Amino acid sequence: MAPAKAAGAAAAAAAAVSLAVLSYLLCSLRSQRRAPPEKKRNGRGKDGVVGAVGNTPLIRIDSLSDATGCEILGKCEFLNPGGSVKDRVAVKIIEEALESGKLVRGGVVTEGSAGSTAISLATVAPAYGCKCHVVIPDDVAIEKSQILEALGATVERVRPVSITHRDHYVNIARRRATEANELASKSGIDEQTDGIQLEHVNGYHCRGETLSSSPLRNYKGGFFADQFENLANFRAHYEGTGPEIWEQTGGNIDAFVAAAGTGGTLAGVSRFLQEKNQKVKCFLIDPPGSGLFNKVTRGVMYTKEEAEGRRLKNPFDTVTEGIGINRLTENFKMANLDGAFRGMDLEAVEMSRFLLKNDGLFLGSSSAMNCVGAVRVAQSIGPGHTIVTILCDNGMRHLSKFHNDEYLDQYGLRPRAASLEFLGINSRTIGKFYS
What we know:
Strand order of the largest sheet: 1-2-10-7-8-9
Strand content: 5-15%
Number of helices: 14
């Protein structure tokens, strides 16, 4: 009887172990079913508005493609959460500043901007626990400053002067960051920043400003974004926009063209694409008054107007905003370019109306100029090629000027073209290969 009892006890123990194992497995399966799926995060490891930046669609612009015989593709950067390509730059600048300790949560980001970069900074800064202070020329479209204020940024509108002037909007923005640091230091706020020593910006110290009346009080220091010279701008496009274009075209791209303000987009994309394939041609399209066309094509930075001893107000006379410049930025120096085209204001205006009528694309001034550049490239290299450009922002920020016929009438720029004749393309060629 003893062996039988032992065998029975062993069998019962085995059964108990099996039931325990089965129960554990069932509980694990139930737990896995109940657990919410892990969120897929992008390369930045962020959710929310920051995670929505980038990976914008690349679309075929049918009317221009049909007219030229090339595949003309536009990257829809206006679909970023802040409405423009500058969202990428804002995220990269802020993240690098936080990582380096030059900016901390509770600090303020300052920038001198013609609009889009400032709007992007004001959009994403709160996601990092920061505020935004913007200095903007007083001749840019009024809706841009209205958007900034609605986003919670503090806005200074100043008169346009040369970059060499102490009170150029970029130079004022640099001083505002220094003010914020000095105010934080004097109030002892910097002692609350985990021992990080906030520094003066690029060696600049504010002189003559009254710190007690500054709008930058009560922040944990300031950081000057410096979009023109900060190579985070270039890296945003070298690491993001360029690889996206390469992937979206499957590497089947013959040319890239864009205008330049800071030069970050053109530099980052051109350098990445040509590292992938040296045969990809990259071009600049430059608005009136800007010196970059001459620099690329002749190696000399000057404009015809300046050569004649005349100084224009902005300092260049163009209705396009955010593009064109009369100096070489650190970002632009990173570009790999095969040539440049001169775009005219009227061409950009006409292009914006043509694309709205034929493709349903309501674009801003720099986007329209980029599309002028795409057609110029197509005319230069001939049919059968794939050309990519950037659709930087939409027309909603340009209603008071670029999309206002009464304003354009002051400069003789009211659009009148029926088709693409303003670029030398006869309406009878629309739908056929360009020849």
